[in-house]
Amino acid sequence: MFRKQILVVMRSELTRWTGLIVASCALSAALMAAGVPSAPLFAALACAVVAALAGRAPGPIPRPVQLAAQGVLGAYIGTLMQAHTVAALGSRWPAALLVGFATLLLSVGAGALLGRHRDTDSITGSLALVAGGASGLVAIARELGGDERVVAVVQYLRVGLVTVSLPLVAALYPHTPGSSSTDSGPARPWWFDLGFTALCVGGGLAVGLATRLPAGGLLGPLVASAALSLSGVAAGATVPVALVLAGYLVIGWQAGVGFTRESLTAMARLLPWATLLIVGVGIGCACLGFALSAMTGVSALDGYLATTPGGIYAVLAVAASSNVDITFVVAAQLIRVLLMLFLAPAAARAFQKWRATRERDRANTANIAA
Q: What pLDDT is recorded for position 140?
């Protein structure tokens, strides 16, 4: 009898997972055909939310699967760091780094304002509005003490707003239509890419978790991948597309299966304020783009494309159709993403420790007074 009950539960769980996977893949294919950025993540999130609200969501994502997805995404981001791209900054790297830090401060400040809303908290607000690495931040939001559901929705809203507005705003800048290109390095056979991914994910996860690196499941593989790419050992290596898409799906499901009607209602109250803050961050980053242009001598359009708070694939599409310094734009964007992914988790972890210490001191003071 007990064995039969276990089989019934396993069959029900398998049915729910099968339905969620099929629906997510179908919606992902449709969104990718429509040119929606990070389509698998959004499709998985939307399908998981619908399943959760209908009472048909499967159980939580197992921890090893979450870490594997984080590792794949970290390795994928690391492959974007190519030696020729970084070299394109030349003597302009201090200005790009300074603007990257300013973008981080701007987005964290906006996140602090979002955290004052009654339906969220300061850590969640800061992670939700960090201007870069959306999929990575969603993947690690829970272990940093944030609400991954809020982080997922607000981060995707940010990416969507930037992507939609970017071509319209870029058209306002004076520029000469044309084309730009960048070399991605030598192509590698599929088995090399697969071995490269296994090495970065396995080795990076082991080192990241062993050293207690904040968000080590993501940042460990990222560091390993970036080091191998920059050194030239694995220049041109990529993470297989199927694994990247699977990683996006897992991250979307991870955030979506925990939704409830109450959390969805709270999200509806939060989104207008979040949208206003995202627009404010976008305007602030456009001003930073003018500052970067003035400091480095690049065109105003170069500066704007280098400092947009997200939408890197839309940035590349606009840059490819214009006579801009695309390698400079890509390098500056990568600096922004890496700063967000490395400093945001560290800042969140430090804030957690500070808050725990503060609460402990308050408790001790109250005990002494009593």
A: 74
Average pLDDT per 10 consecutive residues for the chain, totaling 370 residues: 64 86 93 79 86 84 87 84 74 88 86 84 82 74 80 81 75 59 62 91 87 76 87 81 89 81 81 91 91 89 85 66 74 81 73 70 68
- Which two structure tokens, joined as six digits, stand for 131? 């201007």
What is the DSSP track for 201-253?
HHHHHHHHHHTT-TTHHHHHHHHHHHHHHHHTTTTT----HHHHHHHHHHHHH
Name the strand (E) or helix (H) holding 358: helix 326-369
* Angle between helices 241-256 and 39-53 in degrees, nearest 10: 30
Backbone phi, psi, residue 322, to 5°? -130, 160
DSSP designation for 120: S
- Residue type for position 333: Q
User: In one letter, which amino acid is 239?
Assistant: V
Are the beta carbons of 249 and 41 closer than 8 angstroms? yes
Q: Which tokens in the block code for residue 342?
A: 């490395």
Pull the structure tokens for residue 162: 């930037």
CA 325/CA 158 separation, integer angstroms? 25
> Closest by alpha carbon to 278, among 87, 124, 113?
113
**Closest by CA position to 220, among listed 232, 209, 235:** 209
Please provide the DSSP assignment of 278-293 as one string. Answer: HHHHHHHHHHHHHHHH
Q: Got the DSSP string for 130-151?
A: -SS-HHHHHHHTTTTTS-HHHH
Q: Could you tell me how many residues make up the chain?
A: 370
Rounded Cα distance between 114 and 303, Å, is 27
The tokens describing 93, both together, are 């790297």
> Rounded distance, CA 310 to CA 336, Å?
9
CB–CB of 248/68 below 8 Å? no
- At 267, list the tokens: 């999200």
The structure tokens 């069959």 sit at: 11
Query: Ramachandran region of residue 305, left (φ > 0), alpha (ψ -120 to 50) or beta?
Result: alpha
